């Protein structure tokens, strides 16, 4: 694992990050987003569900609002103010044309050059089975980046077709190709995960601050050996 990763492209202004759940972006990717918003880039979030099935001790009717609030607070920490929710049902998000259409419509509205999503592969690192929501959403995002530019596909969306997506960057991939130096964004990356306090408190007995710091700093420093010794967040980059 000593092959060096390429730096992420930096000739872009607008990104749209599209994931299944509140917290998906905060498990690493947010440190890169903090670094980008510092540079004056615009990043918006589109969250496909409200994560309402994510807290064992809290019924979905209450959990959805809690998790939406936590996600908006997390986004604010890394300079993101545009956070939209699609309201697909957490845990049972279906891959299909309905999901592709919702995502394509959002891409047409936001007109991003870079689209970001989360690992859609079967596993995390070959050892943990991935969730059906992550598989469905990641694949639909990769597909919808193309759908958005074709005016004959989903012709009745409100916004005009947008064929300007140049890359889709997959966070959390087992086979990353690119990375971003997060020296400046790392601390906010940690704090953005801490904002998911209700979620983390139901998940672990560990204090949320130390839980978030161990994970986020651990990921970033683990990558350093493949990125010139700098703490980094990795992506698998698909060009369009
Ligand atoms: Zn998730």
UniProtKB/TrEMBL annotation:
Protein's UniProt keywords contain Disulfide bond: no
A molecular function GO annotation: hydrolase activity, acting on carbon-nitrogen (but not peptide) bonds, in linear amides
SUPFAM superfamilies: LmbE-like
Protein's GO biological process: glycoside metabolic process
Keywords: Zinc
Keyword Zinc belongs to the record: yes
Name recorded for this polypeptide: LmbE family N-acetylglucosaminyl deacetylase
Organism listed in the record: Nonomuraea jabiensis
